[in-house]
Target: Enoyl reductase (ER) domain-containing protein
Amino acid sequence: MALVAVSNKRVILKRYLTACEIGQLGDEMEVVTAEAVPLSVPAGSFAVLVKNLYISCDPYLRNRMIRHEVPTYISDFVPGEVVTSHGVMKVISSGHLDFKAGDLVWGMTGWEEYTLINNPESLFKINYPEFPLSNYTGVLEMHGLTAYVGFFEMSKPKKACSAIGQIVGQLAKIKGCYVVNLLKTKFGFDDAFNYKKEPDLEAALKRCFPEGIDIDFENVGGAMLDAVLPNMRLGGRITMCGMISQYHLERPEGVRNLMYIITKRLRMEGFVIFDSIAVYRQFEEEMAGYLREGKVTYVEDIVQGLDAAPAALIGIYNGLNVGKQLVSIAQA
Amino acid sequence: MALVAVSNKRVILKRYLTACEIGQLGDEMEVVTAEAVPLSVPAGSFAVLVKNLYISCDPYLRNRMIRHEVPTYISDFVPGEVVTSHGVMKVISSGHLDFKAGDLVWGMTGWEEYTLINNPESLFKINYPEFPLSNYTGVLEMHGLTAYVGFFEMSKPKKACSAIGQIVGQLAKIKGCYVVNLLKTKFGFDDAFNYKKEPDLEAALKRCFPEGIDIDFENVGGAMLDAVLPNMRLGGRITMCGMISQYHLERPEGVRNLMYIITKRLRMEGFVIFDSIAVYRQFEEEMAGYLREGKVTYVEDIVQGLDAAPAALIGIYNGLNVGKQLVSIAQA
Model:
């Protein structure tokens, strides 16, 4: 078989960011056309060559563009190399028995047209291609799984609860919970406010939760978390998933209300979704059911093409996206 | 039987404190001689009249001398009324079937010579009078129980751990843990430092725990807690018991390192010992065994007489006590 090679446009990191640049610029990324890649895996290789269809813009990615003295839970990007994130891909050529050309998969890939994946064990086959494939960068993938594990396993819902994030909010609704979210009309949440525009967060929470909060699914951190603490109910749980309001700060905001953890007997617990990958298939089946029945609604904000990817990623820190931000690179 | 009445010296609260006065003054307390009390309970009453032998000086008491707009987990003291805390008492007269004159008990009582206790169900009989009775204001009472519940139930020790507080530190030693405490020689702790004198708390912890901390039994809060977080190991537990460094501050210090709760998958959980009173008898038996076998050592700082009580209480905020602070009022 003749080796066909194609050009490969990609987004690379040019230089490391400083923490305060997280939501600014974009000149630390560059779109280049790399040397042509052959459209089949090397002979004898167990790798898989994929065509990237969608890539995911996630808050944690800008943090990987900072050089960390102390390792975090994920490795830093390297200047000159392609940016990576989760994506949806089509297998073009496979040296691995579990995959064949034409398979649709999701997993870690490059921000480029084609990627040679040397550890295909990390890929997941897409079991429900009847949904928009882009859903496999979010609601049917790690974001959905994060909401699912964070809500059902970590937060142990009983009845009432708060929640942040569109999916966890809807999972809470399925369980009959009382939740806050930005988009209450769209997602059917009981109440909502925009934490960036609220002058008194503690009062806003008290307004939304006159009887207090049983479960906080925390993705904001800082002043928002400080306002949550006095509004928690006895024995409440704070599931710590992220702190998007803090990543761009040179020094994180101080949280002063931690005494409530004692007086209200709260549990605050952190989790990183990579630890829960074993639950994925169970989650995928359950979430596919919720989507099919219309119990979960999902909104995506899709930009077209790799050239638009750097700005799309920066936009999520400035609140420019409505719904899950992703980049469409090619059609299946 | 003739009613014998005796005079009754007592410590009353004169006025509410402000938060920043917690470790200062003492003029908000006053030692007065109240009207004579009859030395038997009123006819038909279910109350118990006790002679107070020892009273306990505890950090939470000064907090009860502040007027709280929002109720805390315990009621505020009332100006003009006697200060109360846990103590060791001898029953003088009883209207309650469970108690008789001569019984030694511990529980909530007044800072005075004699107290009429209207809810004797709250009292515990002393099962091991062979130990110094004063131990029932500490190691054999709520302080010991706090260490016991906080360590064994909340912190779920495996092997390595840190701990603060003399009893929890020794419980940790019994379990083979590596612990930090002020008095390592006395209690046999592996290492120790004084958080009030250490210029760089984060570095001090790293020195004591080069491999990181699995369990933090937190009683200090503020900057100390902030220094603990980066030194925690993956999946570690922070049992939140108190924040003595914060109670005198108008505004608590901000804790900035909470992101480690996520990246290190930490659990931070608060508890209030009043919820765990059901475990007391099991604890008392076990702790009596540890004391008898010399596995737990216990140091008390005893001042004599009610006149010395206000200064003794203030002293614990200024680090003047060595060991558990208490006041001896009378001999059994």
